[in-house]
Amino acid sequence: MTQHLADALPTSTGTQPGWWREAVIYQVYPRSFADSNGDGMGDLEGIRSRLPYLKELGVDAVWLSPFYASPQADAGYDVADYRAIDPMFGTLHDADAVIREAHALDLRIIVDLVPNHCSDQHEWFKQALREGPGTPLRERFHFRPGRGAGGEEPPNDWESIFGGPAWTRVPDGEWYLHLFAPEQPDFNWEHPAVQDEFRSILRFWLDLGADGFRIDVAHGLVKAPGLPDLGRDEQLKLLGNQVLPFFDQDGVHEIYRSWRLVLDEYAGDRIGVAEAWTPSADRTAMYLRPDELHQAFNFHYLNTDWDAEALRGAIDDSLDSMRPVGAPTTWVLSNHDVVRHRTRFGSLERARAAALLMLALPGSAYVYQGEELGLPEVTDLPDEVRQDPSFFKANGQDGLRDGCRVPIPWSGEEAPYGFGTGGSWLPQPAEWAGLSVAAQTGDPASTLELYRAALRIRRAHPALGAGDGVEWLPAPEGVLAFRRGDFVCTANTTDVPVRLPAPGTALLSSTDLAEPDLLPADSTVWWQG
Ligand code: GLC
């Protein structure tokens, strides 16, 4: 394979902070980003062709949601072959081209790794089914006899996160565990072959030049010994924080310590990012001890309303919990599993204000594709086009996930708005013509230009980016004000303008500042002062 630029980039030794301590990482959801072959599905060649857009936007790295060979029972989070690309997305050659071209633009690439479960079409699982009870391949998964007369009841009372029992019975009478869809059997992480296989998969992508991994359901790999009953009847939520016998078990940390050794074998500061839903910020910090992973998603922040007091609490808790382990705090407002924050917060003004607030905080930030365009959730998708497996379960998620996955608009007056030359796998609303990249480019009032300006300032301003604290300033109720060196950020979360003496010269504001000492409703302002 080609020599990758990442190999030549500096590593985080001594006092030099690692790039990931302050990176803005852009999440690409491959099926909905850009479609190069007109089949209505985004693909790797589409992503490659749009890398200059991401460079110009000003992000540091790109996280790609799964593009591996998959029957797509859960939009690619059901992986049949971890070393192959699904033909819908392209070829391994295309993946290599994305990584190489990204590196040439000085953008890093983080790939999504799904270690908790695979697809029921993975070779190991198919072989386990063929070979029957008691055979070695079954030990790589959680196969058990059922309970009750004739084993007709599931082995325990665990519920799947998408709704219904977490167990499915196979024709020979055994049941297998799947915390998600029945098409996503959970691996048995006690098994050495599973551990070896994933270290080898890490190396495969590191050799190809990947700068890191976003680790799906990082808290789920180890299950409590004996798979004990939960003893209560409750539907689990994505991004939940319950104490459970299949999440956040202490044994997961040994896995991440062994992965860290692999990451550290490679030059170029390769990282692991945990998608870990744990009962507390301190439990999340355990994944980020110096010999484990580098970052974790901050779901506490994502789940916080547009409310000054709540935000300040979440910001302080997040910073406090990371300080003891020396890991950077991360910030995120949207991703492919939640309602887009413009819709969650109720207005574009709030979404823009929330973005400036997030980008002013110390640490690393995640931007989900389309949020830089101010896209809302699509709430009126017809049932027949929906693909989210949770939709098909009566007890599934209350927030269905297709509405945040609608392909993004690039240009033009009609759907698919430059997404591709064919259609788009989910229909785009008519109003999206005005939200396209082309429509917003060059318009200083647009959300796209707001993100571009914010990322430019964030990169240039010495007080922004990495850090582990903020200095709170006195502010009226409903307003947040904090200082970082000679930089001040104020955010008015109320729906009325608030008087506050200008703390300096305004650098950027999410809503026009008519008077410097009058903060508009639902706005954030960056100040030099
Ligand atoms: C993660 C992913 C989500 C997926 C689930 C199962 O939460 O973000 O999209 O459905 O894992 O892999």
From TrEMBL:
Signal peptide location: none
Start and end residues of each Glycosyl hydrolase family 13 catalytic domain: 27-401
Domain of life from the UniProt record: Bacteria
Molecular function (Gene Ontology), one example: alpha-amylase activity
SMART domains per UniProt: Aamy
Record-level GO BP terms: oligosaccharide catabolic process
A Pfam family annotated for this UniProt entry: Alpha-amylase
Family: Belongs to the glycosyl hydrolase 13 family.
Name of this chain's protein: Alpha-glucosidase
Organism: Streptomyces xanthophaeus
